[in-house]
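Weekly sync notes, structure subgroup
Attendees: PM, AL, DS (notes)

Item 1: joint prediction request from the bench team. They want all two components modeled as one assembly rather than separately. Inputs as received:
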Amino acid sequence: MSLASSLPSISSNVPEAARVPTLTLFMGIGAVLLFASVVGWLLRWRLGGDNAVVANLNARINAWWVMVAVIGLALLGGRTGVVVLFGLVSFFALREFLTLTHTRRGDHLALLACFFVFLPLQYWFVWHDWYGMFSIFVPVYAFLLMPFLACLGHDTTHFLARATQTQWGLMICVYAISHVPALLALRIEGFEDRNLLLIVFLILVVQSSDVLQYVWGKLFGRHKIAPNVSPSKTVEGFIGGIASATALGASLWWITPFSPPAAAAMALLITLMGFVGGLVMSAIKRDRGVKDWGQMIEGHGGMLDRLDSVCFSAPVFFHAVRYFYTA
Amino acid sequence: MLDRLAGRFLILLARLLTGAYANWVGCRPEPQQRLYFANHSSHLDFLLLWGLLPPALRYRTRPVAGADYWNATPLRRYLIHRVFRGVLVERNRKDAGDNPLAPLQAALDAGDSLIFFPEGTRSQTDEMLPFKSGLYHLAQANPTLALVPVRMENLNRVMPKGELLPVPLVCILTFGAPVALGEDETKAAFLERARQTILDLRA
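Output from the run, pasted for the record:
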């Protein structure tokens, strides 16, 4: 098959109704990133290549280009592309999370099950649209089976702490993150075939909230909001970031099934949960004595450093939409 | 050719699974004759240490491994001789007069670098075992050889001794500054100091 004839078949994974808005949004994102890259180049030119803050900023912007490209490719793959992408994201996140926990030899079987049984099954249920299963699989079945597998290791030292940490990892990195592709399973009247846009909305709002909180904090941050948990978060960054990301969310109402005020309320919910996620995950890092979850994404740290807010906002957003917008 | 491909494939697999990365803290990856010595807890150890060296260095660096284990099956023999180009040591000597370090010395004399696990075997617990005297004898016989300590983190959790399947956790390899044998340093003092450098290496 020639490239030209294969292109329409790839894009046919994206339903007709979602194509134009998705393309428009990606062009908008591309324009914003281009602007950011130009600012980054100018800063490096003015302040020199050895300025650490500017170097980190440029690394972050470059990583954004890659992340946007990866998400774009996954969307082209339609439902399967999105499920596979977030399955991999869960895998990397879980790997980072469990690396920092104190498991022992006796947990080997339970850990293997997390990566090679529970994670694939959860995404398989999501791919199959099996709401009744994916919404309870981890909190019921995995929750009860995992400590049993740990028992088979015949080691009771710190048993509760070990079992809890592993379950936490599974809840945050697999269960919570799987609610992003699960958005595709929602049946919203008058919004058929456009569920990909819900994912775009969620990710755009939550990530721009992170970036805007960072920018507002760097520009106007004076008062630390939780110095013991996350020293870089400020009251000014919190208010400015949440307010501007909520406004951005409201302005995106046309890609969602929401009215403009409802889009603002959803965006506010997403950004608040995202803030909570950032704070909680930061507390875990501090407890473990590390600054970043890993070093997978240049300039950002690990996968979980970029996703901490998504972990907390995705399930809540999913259930809010499900409650208010599905029959 | 095929042997190198097999090596690359194994390295790729191990790196995809463990997301392992190298931290060159005390030295850089340079084409200098070296003996890398590290803590030992899993079969993945030397695959990752060897695999994280730049290719040009990797093919001049040979892992030291136990002959009893690696000569036991055809697959293991193929891997250790053709893919990793390992140097095998007899751990259970029949004749007390044999020098078990002779094959290592031969490799060093030929200009190769070595990957060496001074504990002699994989640790069953999370603790590092005391070092055997091999490291001391090699240091004594090769005064110009750079002894580079490497701390391998999390390998014991990825694939503990006796387990078949690896759990994907992130592994970090930290390369420290070379350790040299002091002029009047005793064997026990040197081995303890070398062991402590690995314990002290933190990313």
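Discussion: DSSP finds 13 helices and no strands in chain A.
Action: AL to compare against the crosslinking data before next sync.
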